[in-house]
Structures are given as structure tokens and as C-alpha cells.
Amino acid sequence: MSQRRPPRPDVEVRTSPRRRKTASGFWQDGRVVILVPARLSKADRVELVEGLVQRVLAQRPHVTTSDEDLEERAASLADEYLGGVRARSIRWVGNQQRRWGSCTSRTGEIRISERLRFVPGWVLDAVLVHELAHLIEPTHSPRFRRLAARFPRTAEADTFLAGYTLGLETSDEISA
To answer: Tens of pLDDT along 86-106?
Structure first.
């Protein structure tokens, strides 16, 4: 399998004359924002910013994971919740705007929407378990629902994704 790495998220560095000694970093609108004191030298700023970017990226490791990393994550979840079932391939895709993931049970291929790169890891895990469960039960039957519900935060993830969907739709309307 290829080691297709996603592009690194955009990084925005903001300087503040009010900041004296501290710097901070956080996620905002799919990019990493770093706040640094304005009086910091450029040489010191470069090193500080890179360290903070790495710390922020570590908060959401799936944002920068490859298809291979996604496959390893799914294998671990499959071992824990679904008896070790394996997909033939699992990869991130950018063309799923209405679904979080898809599984072609006939071929064993799972596709996960790039939009999930920015959700908490447990939400991504719930989607992966859902798609992996389709390898065992292709329909949304009661058996399938029992399999998917083996992941303990399934209901919580469903609620999160419902709200996330509303937020995405609202931001699409605002930016259009």
C-alpha cells in the first residue's frame, strides 16, 4: 500500500505586542494557529513555532495520518471489537461530501471522508468500526447495529457527527 501522506495543515503565525513571554497554539478552521510575542527574534520564533505546531498536531494525530496509518488504526479496532475482520483496503478520500465513510462489502474496500480528519479520534474510531461491521453484515440490519454498537462511544459519536454536519452545512452557506 502507498504511504500517501496528506498535506500538512496550513499554519498561521500571529504576533502579539501584549504577549511578553508565552506562546500558544491551537486548531482553528482546519489550520494550526500559533500566537507568539511580537518582540521575539525571528530565529527564536522559527524554533518555537515548529515545536508548537508539532504539539498541536499531536492533539489530533489522525489529521496527518497516511492511508497506511488509517489501515493500522482500523486493524486495531477490528481486533478489539469485531473479531479481527480485515478490509482489503482502507483509504482517505476527498470525494465524499454526504457520507462519513463507505464500505463495499463485496470487494472489502473502505473509504473514509477527508472531512473526518478534523474530528476527535474516538469519532473517527466509531466510523471505522461502523464501516468494518459492514464487512460482516452488509445491511443496516439489527445484527449490523449490534456489531457497530460494540464500540462503546457509538451513540455519542452519532450525536457529535449530527452536530458536526450542521456546522459544516452552516459554514458552507456562509462561505457561498
So the answer is: 999 999 998 888 899 999 999
